[in-house]
Amino acid sequence: MNGDVYIGQWEIIDKVKKRHGHGKFVYALTGVTEEYDGEWNNDQMEGYGVYKYLSGARYEGNWVKSRQHGQGTFYFPNGAKYVGQWENHKMSGRGMYTDPYGVPWEGVFINGTFDSTIQKRLKAEYEEEQKIIALKHVASVQIAEMKKVFSLEKKTWKENFMRFVITNLEEVDRLVAEPFARWEDRNGDKWNDVITQLMDVEPRILKSKEDSKILGDRVFGVQLQGPGQILEFIKHTDTRRMELALVNSETGKWLIVACIDAAQKP
């Protein structure tokens, strides 16, 4: 005897006595027990039944051929609960999952994995938020690096600043369209001044190609994905319009696409 106990209905099927109808089966497992109390069919759990697991978990619901299948409720040991559809012993189909803190999530389980529409959206929003935070840090670093150039000897300004200027079209031609800013567009002092003015500006992180306020339809690269990302700095006063746009190039360098410094009528 292994200690297993069945109390319930029996039936002779194919000349063999089998559990059939309603019954309770207690499994003896190294001094502790699991138990099933419910319907049986031809010696298998089938119909409605309650299974209490060694872990403290509990399933209440439909069974087919000793597998959780159909509608059922599963109580997890940590206090979470799932109410919904099951297939072949796995949560599968639409259901409501309530986490250990009592927060409900309605969605779809696929092969035992929670595939919540709400959860996916929240996860996507969180990931987007983290990318934007990281890109804002990148933007502040880049504008500071540009400003650092103008703390060097004046005769070295152009040479050191050229690393921020697009000189190789292959680095950006699939990401953003011309025209591009050039060092020759203004003298060094004016470059220094516009960069200084934009240092305290909150950068705009493009989320889509259509978001640009500086480049219009010149943006080709998918945003928040790496190469092609655009960062924009915009500062308008009563008399002056200052704008700077950077692109993350194919080689990972941040390069100036556009720099606008124009007078505005008050």
UniProtKB/TrEMBL annotation:
SUPFAM superfamilies: Histone H3 K4-specific methyltransferase SET7/9 N-terminal domain (SSF82185). The keyword Repeat applies. GO terms for cellular component: cytosol. Keywords: Repeat. The keyword Repeat applies. InterPro entries: MORN. This is MORN repeat-containing protein 5. It comes from Stentor coeruleus.
